[in-house]
Amino acid sequence: MLFLSLSRPIEGPRSTPGRPLSFDLPNGEPGIAPYFCKRHAAHVYEEATEAPFLARLGTARQALLYLHDGGRRPEEGAFREAAILQRALAEDGVRVVPVLWPCREGSPGAGDEPLLAAQGGLALARALARLGADDARPTAVLAHGMGARVLQEALRRSGVPRLDAAFLAAPALPDDALEAGGPLAAARRLVLYHAAADAVLAGLGDEAALGRTGPALVDLLPERAAAVDAGAVAAGCDPKAHAYHLPDGAGRPGPVLAHLQAALRTGDIPGTRPWQRRVRLAPGVEAYA
């Protein structure tokens, strides 16, 4: 599995092709540049460096960078979740690339994790600039929870090419974060998934209101943006109504993953019209209102 790291490896910052790497995300610090890496097996990582990494990625029809939530270790969090998403999206020629960033252990958003998420934006911006140089391969990002803050900070920086799409699942952001003119509006398509019953975001208050109640004013969203209410289906995939972008406990893809897959496949935002940018998902794989 290819992956990017925004966290400095334990072996030090000097980039060397083929060197073994290890990461301690709970105690790590953000790097100023991304590390282009390969995962061979659990806890077995190698630095690929940029050119070989991009050459391997070039065989995919589309790249989907996956920014994990906070409070995660690589194996139990980013790599496990990315592998699940890869199995669901492989038939569409999508290559899922997990992106590690230095988060803390415990509840997402605890301690200095919001600051670390913002600091990780510099290295992510540089990674997006390199990936965006290939016009033949669209690049999209799926950001979950605190990972949305990493993406927001990356797009705030100048020189980052426009993403083909940004998907925000349960983002830990305030409810005005998607308004036109903001950094996230740089994506050609912007899709928000939110659920009022999200038990993880509930503890973060107004700073995570976007992931619970959606945008404050939908009329202020960019033209190619939509707010998808997953409240009726979230708990069916995750008892905490937070990781509903993943399949349920039995491995069945839920409506959120089906909606995301359809958006990647069609280049559109399913369920929307020019005059309707709110979508409500209902139980059933592709039930849009």
Characterise the protein shown here:
This protein is α/β, with parallel strands linked by helices. It has a single domain (59-280), classed as Rossmann fold (3-Layer(aba) Sandwich), CATH 3.40.50. Helices cover 25% and strands 21% of the residues. The chain is built from 8 helices and 11 strands. Strands 2-4-3-1-6-5-7-8-9-10-11 form an 11-stranded mixed beta sheet, sandwiched between helices. Strand 3 (30-41) and strand 4 (44-47) form a beta hairpin. The radius of gyration is 17 Å and the shape is globular.
Task: Explain briefly what this protein structure is.
With about 290 residues, the protein is of the alpha/beta class. It has one domain: Rossmann fold (3-Layer(aba) Sandwich), CATH 3.40.50. The chain has helices at about 50-55, 75-90, 115-120, 120-130, 145-155, 210-215, 235, 255-265; strands at about 1-5, 20, 30-40, 45, 60-65, 95-100, 140-145, 165-170, 190-195, 225-230, 280.
Given the C-alpha coordinates, what overall shape results? globular
| Total domain count | 1
- The overall strand count is 11
- Cα distance spanning the termini: 36 Å
Reading off the top of the CATH hierarchy, the class is best stated as Alpha Beta
What is the architecture at the second tier of CATH?
3-Layer(aba) Sandwich
- Secondary-structure-based class equals alpha/beta
State the CATH topology. Rossmann fold
Helix content: 10-25%
Low-pLDDT residue spans? none
**Major sheet details:** 11 strands, mixed
Give me the side-by-side strand order of the main sheet: 2-4-3-1-6-5-7-8-9-10-11
Helical region count?
8
